[in-house]
Structures are given as C-alpha cells and as structure tokens.
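Justification of computing resources. Each target in the renewal requires a structure prediction run like the one illustrated here; the chain below, 73 residues long, is used simply to show the kind of job we budget for.
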Amino acid sequence: MLGGALSALVGITKTLGRTVSAGPALLLKRRKALDIFARGLRAQGLDPEAVKELTAAYKNLGSLESWFSRPRE
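Resulting structure tokens:
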C-alpha cells in the first residue's frame, strides 16, 4: 500500500515538474507568435492603431484565463 502511494506521489511530482518546465518555453513561443502576427498585419499596410487592437484580440484568444473566466450560458 505504501509503495503504491509513493509511486503515485513520484508520478505526480514528475508530471508537475514537466508542466512547470514547459511554461517558459510556451510563453516564449506565444510572444514570438504575437510578433509574427503583428509584423504580418503591418506588412498588409494596416495603421498602427489597428495592428495594436488586432494583436490584443489575438493575444486574448490564446489566453487560458479568458477561457476559464467566461460566464456559462
């Protein structure tokens, strides 16, 4: 019984460690994606204010916070 609990604890610790270590890499990829998106909009000739608003909307689409804070219908 103790061996099973210890095994579960080790598994949970490994999973959490992988999740935490992946966080900074995902944030960096998200930042690069936002820069690429904004660069593409500027290349299309959009004015800076439109680029700023569209980039903010694009950033919000990828935000997990907005997914979880959405009110249920």
